[in-house]
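thoughts on these tokens:
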Amino acid sequence: MNSIPPIFISHGSPMLMLEPGRAGPAWQTLARELPRPRAILAVSAHWNTRTPAVSATAKPETIHDFHGFPPPLYELAYAAPGAPDLAAEVAELVSGITIDRSRGLDHGAWSPLRFMYPAADIPVIQLAVMPYASAEAHYLLGQSLQPLARDGVLILASGGLTHNLGDIVFDAADGEALPHVAEFRDWFAAALARRDLPALLDWHRQAPHAARAHPSPEHLLPLFVALGAAGENAAAKIAFRDSQLGALALDAFVFATASA
């Protein structure tokens, strides 16, 4: 199988599923540029556990884990098959991981996948993030998954480069970012570009406005799984950059080696 570079997508507001703006077409382009995966391991900001966990549902349901949105959002479904065999591979690589045989796909997984692979014909499972664990712990978790990325599995990390719902500006134009959002995103992109791993893993102390950009870390932690899964020589390529509602940076990154 082809090696597939891990990716990080900022999935933004659920409204992108009805009003995709520039993000939906960008996700479609990204999928076309990647080798077709044999399966997808979605690392979602919306599944939080204290210890590592992976789903292993044969027919995962579509979870509508959001509230107060227009009714058509709750009618959307993503009927991709699950991948219990991939969950078993993950369990061989990650010691002590919990296998959840009932969890479906939350919107951190299915919202970008509806644009990337609309036929829903690629098996998908999810990997949880651990909000009480460090960025380094997630980077090491990603490192343990490197064999999957080398063997045709797309590691899709889905969160948000910034995520403070209290700062949302409902009448902000698409692409307009609050000053602290722009400063945080620029710092992070620069640290990724020079692969400054010590700074990245210490982001909550070194990045400007870190606590405001992420009052809780779960939307940034998937990025570190993708970064670890890419290997030590991987470079970060900005695949998409935009902003939504002022407070949500919609940046996407591909973590590829020169040979990928």
